[in-house]
Write a structure and sequence with these properties.
The protein is an alpha+beta fold. The protein is built from three helices and six strands. The strands form two sheets. It has a four-stranded antiparallel beta sheet with strand order 2-1-4-5. A two-stranded parallel ribbon has the order 3-6.
Length: about 110
């Protein structure tokens, strides 16, 4: 069972910062290996900044869909309009924060 940390407002990973109908993902910090709904929640609760995951770690499950409760790889998530497992739409504005969650560095 996956634990989602942060300031959650429901069981689909919405938080006090992002709580719209398509805000259904949590992302894993590379440093602490914990899932948070957003980098803001993470940074309020941890003693280190959110560290993005390398896109080269293709097999690692680093995204959690709050709708179907499944873990996804970066490739499963990035650039997709909806969850490949359940079809629930993702928030298209999350792409503005990709650099917070994912890095091109190895």
């Amino acid at each position: 069972m996956v634990t989602i940390y942060g300031d959650l407002t429901d069981n689909e990973t919405r938080c006090t910062d992002y709580h719209g109908p398509t805000d259904i993902v949590a992302l894993k910090c590379f440093a602490c290996q914990k899932y948070y709904p957003c980098f803001k929640c993470h940074n309020r609760h941890e003693d280190h900044p959110f560290e993005p995951y390398s896109q080269y770690l293709k097999k690692d499950k680093v995204v959690f869909c709050g709708s179907c409760q499944r873990e996804l790889t970066i490739e499963d998530y990035k650039g997709k309009a909806a969850c490949p497992c359940c079809g629930h739409p993702f928030n298209p504005n999350c792409s503005r924060h990709y650099d917070c969650y994912f890095t091109d560095k190895a």
